């Protein structure tokens, strides 16, 4: 609901380019953290040898070899589509239920104990049940992701609605907005504060649970490749697949979650003093 | 027909009666101040009149075409710029997109908002500027009636005075009618044409007093003298500074 008629197109472009460059520049901190991790990893390698822990360079070489193999791309894509579709299901269902529960205290009272129960059951138990129900298929992985990721999205959406500024609802009503208009233009927008952290957490959970379910359910994908590496005692290959999994998560998070969040949170950046934007 | 006519209006929260038997008529072009002790139901009455809350009893006849409302808190959308916030009310009022920019510019000028202020988010604006945007948002829809729900209570004295001047300038000429909720008699004396006093327990309007001249014609001295003489001599205003914290919810 931001109109920018007084801002010219070059100004808007400059603003957008500035934000992208600032975002890319903030990547230095991430690279520095990765270098620190690699240093600790290298120390572990030198202490225990390649059989226990391969060096970062060897692992990257193994990952490079995987990237040249078309079969590895198919394996990675299988896990990617399972994780993303499972995440999408959890986001839609959890977000929808959370919003309903946020507006309806009775639904919230009924749903809260159920969420506690779902959170209390270990994902491994769901994997066993899903394997019995669906066998080693996509449905098994998606079901386990849905159950594991749904509570955080549900709570994020419900909390956003519950903690919304009711003064804004009243203001919108005073200017003639009906219930649906108030929800779309005022309520929904306020859920983003708590919904986005929930979605980021759910996305990470989706990838972790997808790989775990694939490994235990013998359903192929990166989990299946990790099982093969375990059988062959190939540490470099196992770590390379871990890197692939993390790289996929980062790629999805930074192309799906953060651009939307950055666009919606422009007003928060306006409150931050210059120099500590990120 | 009057701009607003309330007849026998009553309301209760969870079985507790907060308003009962309220009769109030506001003529066209008139600003009516409604005063009373904290917790007597002034804001609830304004919300009922503005159709934000449904009354349990009574009749409400709105003779105006469109109303605007200014709250104690500016209630600006934090994710929209000042311009976006003004556009929000225009969008809700069904003003076509192509007309909105001109309407925003015109209203911003009325309340002395500069083009650079319009690009700022609420978080970048001071309390006074936020309230200025809230006033612009209410005026942009070109209302013929405005509800003022203690709009300047949270502002400091100098800022409050400037905002009151803005209201006096905007309402001068009698194009606007309004209900101004306040607990500050000095503020009522500056802005209103008539002043109504609500019972401490919301049991009806105790009485209404007219001011001798139009708001723009009054001076600080005449306002001060009126408040002093009213508080000292008029029994209608005897209890307006009573406070019962238990009643304030």
TrEMBL record, chain A:
It comes from the Bacteria. InterPro entries: MetI-like (IPR000515), MetI-like_sf (IPR035906). The keyword Nucleotide-binding does not apply. CDD domains: TM_PBP2 (cd06261). It is a multi-pass membrane protein. Residues 76-254 form the ABC transmembrane type-1 domain. Belongs to the binding-protein-dependent transport system permease family. This is NitT/TauT family transport system permease protein. It comes from Roseibium marinum.
UniProtKB/TrEMBL annotation, chain B:
Residues 4-225 form the ABC transporter domain. GO terms for molecular function: ATP binding; ATP hydrolysis activity. It holds the Pfam family ABC_tran. Coiled coil: none annotated. InterPro entries: AAA+_ATPase, ABC_transporter-like_ATP-bd, ABC_transporter-like_CS, ABC_transporter_ATP-bind, P-loop_NTPase. Keywords: ATP-binding, Nucleotide-binding, Transport. Belongs to the ABC transporter superfamily. This is NitT/TauT family transport system ATP-binding protein. It comes from Roseibium marinum.
């Amino acid at each position: 609901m931001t109109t920018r008629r007084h801002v010219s197109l070059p100004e808007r472009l400059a603003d957008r380019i500035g934000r992208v460059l600032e975002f890319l520049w903030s990547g230095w901190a991430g690279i520095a953290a990765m270098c620190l991790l690699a240093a600790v990893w290298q120390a572990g390698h030198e202490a225990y040898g390649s059989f226990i822990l391969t060096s970062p360079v060897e692992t990257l070489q193994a990952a490079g070899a995987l990237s040249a193999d078309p079969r590895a791309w198919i394996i990675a894509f299988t896990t990617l589509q399972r994780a993303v579709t499972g995440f999408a299901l959890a986001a839609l269902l959890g977000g929808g239920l959370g919003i309903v529960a946020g507006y309806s205290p009775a639904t919230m009272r009924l749903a809260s104990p159920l969420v506690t129960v779902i959170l209390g059951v270990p994902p491994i138990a769901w994997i066993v049940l899903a394997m019995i129900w669906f066998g080693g298929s996509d449905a098994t992985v998606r079901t386990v992701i849905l159950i594991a990721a749904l509570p955080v999205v549900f709570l994020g959406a419900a909390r956003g609605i519950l903690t919304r500024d009711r003064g804004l609802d009243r203001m919108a009503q005073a200017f003639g907005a009906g219930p649906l208009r108030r929800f779309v233009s005022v309520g929904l927008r306020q859920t983003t504060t708590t919904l986005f952290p929930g979605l980021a957490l759910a996305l990470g959970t989706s990838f972790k649970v997808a790989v775990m379910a694939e490994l235990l359910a013998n359903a192929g994908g990166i989990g299946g490749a990790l099982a093969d590496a375990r059988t062959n005692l190939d540490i470099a290959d196992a770590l390379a697949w871990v890197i692939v999994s993390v790289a996929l998560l980062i790629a999805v998070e930074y192309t799906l979650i953060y651009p939307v969040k950055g666009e919606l949170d422009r007003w928060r950046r306006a409150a931050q003093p210059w120099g500590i934007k990120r | 027909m009057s701009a607003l006519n309330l007849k026998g209006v009553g309301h209760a929260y969870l079985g507790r009666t907060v308003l009962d038997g309220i009769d109030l008529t506001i003529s066209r072009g008139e600003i009516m101040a409604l005063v009373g002790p904290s917790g007597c139901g002034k804001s609830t009455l304004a919300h009922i009149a503005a159709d934000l809350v449904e009354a349990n009893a009574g009749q409400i006849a709105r003779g105006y075409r469109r109303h605007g409302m200014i709250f104690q808190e500016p209630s600006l959308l934090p994710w929209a710029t000042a311009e976006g916030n003004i556009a929000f009310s225009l969008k809700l009022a069904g003003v076509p997109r192509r007309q909105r920019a001109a309407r925003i510019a015109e209203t911003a000028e009325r309340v002395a908002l500069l083009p650079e202020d319009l690009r700022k988010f609420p978080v970048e604006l001071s309390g006074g500027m936020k309230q200025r945007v809230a006033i612009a948002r209410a005026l942009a829809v070109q209302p013929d009636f405005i509800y003022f729900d203690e709009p300047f209570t949270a502002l400091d004295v100098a800022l409050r005075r400037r905002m009151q001047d803005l209201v006096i300038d905007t309402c001068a000429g009698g194009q606007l009618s309004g209900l101004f909720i306040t607990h500050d008699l000095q503020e009522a004396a500056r802005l209103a044409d008539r002043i109504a006093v609500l019972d401490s327990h919301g049991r009806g309007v105790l009485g209404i007093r007219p001011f001798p001249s139009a708001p723009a014609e009054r001076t600080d001295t005449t306002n001060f003298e009126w408040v002093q003489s009213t508080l000292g001599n008029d029994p209608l205003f005897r209890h307006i500074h009573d406070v019962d914290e238990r009643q304030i919810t």
